[in-house]
Amino acid sequence: MIKIIGFDADDTLWHNESIFDRVQQRYRDLLARYHPADVVDRVLFATEMRNLPHYGYGVKGFMLSTVETAIELTKGAISAQEIREIITLGQEMLAHPVELLPGVAELVPALARDYRLLLITKGELHHQEHKIAASGLAPHFSAIEILSEKDGATYERVLRRHGVAVGEFVMVGNSLRSDILPVLELGGAGVHIPYHITWQHEHVEEPPRNHARFRRVDNLAALPPLLPAL
Predict the structure, then answer these.
(1) Are residues 104 and 177 in the same domain?
(2) Where does residue 132 rank: exposed (0-12), middle (13-18), buried (19+ CB within 10 A)?
(3) Among candidates 208, 201, 179, 177, which has minimal Cα distance to 191?
């Protein structure tokens, strides 16, 4: 029986990837006189993956990669003013207000009355702390974990730290790679709620639909009826 629910934050409780998507379009426009959009996207993604072990996830690492990519794609011809425009894009992302997804403001407090809730997210510590505080949801979670990576070993440590039996745990999130598959491999349950945009790095094959402890739903409102069957 499920007693503890883990929630991802970005693109599960509030919008995130759509902000990156809009900024990346403006970034393509800025570099359009140097290269077509597909080249900009390909080189930027390669730079992000190369830098991920150094910068981790989040806006700041993304923006450092955009600057590096701009220098590479222009062979150093990018101007100081254009670099300033790129930095401004990052500052706008960091200042962007937190916009909860539909139903979140009502459903999270309701679930907190019957279940123990954990918020398990990854990203840059300062920015994630800011978003969590701005969301107004923090009081409904018994614990909040901001991680540099979300894999099986990390989930195992988090659950052990909070005295959670994996068989009583379900993880809810938009990313199969980060939120669902590691927990299923440990023997927990996972509910996948896809966001309309998925970062390329998070693309993996979905588990079989007949997996006893896996469900995919369209929105958070569909979660409560599923819990008794997991």
Answers:
(1) yes
(2) buried
(3) 179
